[in-house]
Specification:
Helix content is 21%, strand content 26%.
Length: 217
């Protein structure tokens, strides 16, 4: 398991959400990149030095410090969409190889390189910027049906990373809620929401959604 690339955003106009700019256009960089905890959402800060988000109400902050997507899943989408998909094209900071990102457990921890430790926090939920960026009508629904969302991670121990670094799973919690299952629960399969309530590593906003939607069941 390793990092194929570390990807940093290039700001560009965002006509799809009307907020001025977007950092979804992420491209591989050479050399080491420092990764630190960005603090609470609202400032645009994310984990990787040199990157940021512009929709500060919905992205960035502690629970969305880093976004990872598996090269194997990009390859599957590449075949389905009939177009090349470069590392970073889904807006991911980390493009991985050999790591089951969507099968990772919420709260699972990864060591990347010698020092960095990240914790899986939640799935990525698609938005209009993602659909507009890929120029695919109906992309949001298509992406949700596939349930291959990729994982947001929080920073537990800061460090520097670079392409080629090994990735090791160093902790797996004692439950069965994966990134893919959490995504399905939060999107098209609300009957699964009861499984999320007790998963402490999920962001509080996601657990609150689960509590409210399952109240009285």
């Amino acid at each position: 398991m390793k990092l194929l690339s570390v990807n940093i955003g290039h700001p560009r106009p965002n006509p799809w959400k009307g907020i001025g700019s977007t950092g979804i256009d992420k491209r591989p960089v050479a050399g080491p990149v420092a990764v630190t905890a960005p603090g609470p959402r609202g400032t645009g800060a994310v984990g990787l030095a040199g990157d940021r988000v512009y929709d500060v109400d919905h992205h960035g902050g502690t629970d969305q410090a880093v976004y990872a997507y598996a090269r194997e899943d990009l390859d599957a989408w590449q075949d389905e969409l009939g177009r090349p998909l470069a590392n970073g094209v889904f807006g991911e900071n980390l493009t991985t190889l050999g790591l089951d990102v969507n099968g990772a457990l919420i709260g699972e921890r990864w060591r990347i390189g010698p020092d960095l430790v990240l914790e899986v926090s939640c799935p990525r939920v698609p938005c209009s910027t993602f659909q507009g960026w890929l120029e695919r009508e109906g992309w949001i629904k298509r992406f949700m049906r596939a349930a291959l969302p990729g994982a947001y991670l929080r920073v537990v121990v800061p460090g520097e990373i670079r392409a080629g670094d090994p990735v090791a799973v160093v902790r797996r919690p004692d439950h069965t809620v994966t990134v893919a299952l959490a995504f399905r629960a939060l999107t098209l399969e609300p009957d699964l929401l009861t499984l999320l309530v007790a998963v402490e590593a999920l962001p509080e906003e996601d657990r609150e959604i689960a509590r409210k939607r399952t109240a009285g069941r």
